[in-house]
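Re: weekly structure request thread

Next one in the queue (140 aa):
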Amino acid sequence: MQFFSVFIGCEASQEQCDVGEFDRRFAGFDGAKLVFQALGERFKRLKVIFADSAYGKMDLPAWVKQCFGWILQTVLRPVGVKGFVVLPKRWIVERTFAWIGKYRRNSKDYERNTESSKAMIYIAMTSRMLKLLEKYESAG
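Done, posted below.
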């Protein structure tokens, strides 16, 4: 079972990336900028990123492709469908947030700093993985 998956493929090259251009063109996407830069430093072979439809605006996918060589694929809602719809790939993120939220300390924003919040998420996901491994071991 996979908990986190990335599509592996091409190398990131940030030399051709103009970060100032990002600041001018994509005001309001500051969080995305930080995430993309962190991803570029940590996952050198990243190829495809799935994102919410809001990230498909203002040529952000083209900028990501030019700067990092990645494909920013937005998950769109089907046209003409009303009510609740399970969106491809997005349910994986929502399910993960639900797993994290099952732990009382993560159900609200109790933490005063991000490091302790990050640690609690690691603890919650480690606990989840250990429970799954225990189930797998007892079944085998």
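Residues 90-139 form one domain. The chain has two domains: 7-75, 90-139.
Next request, please.
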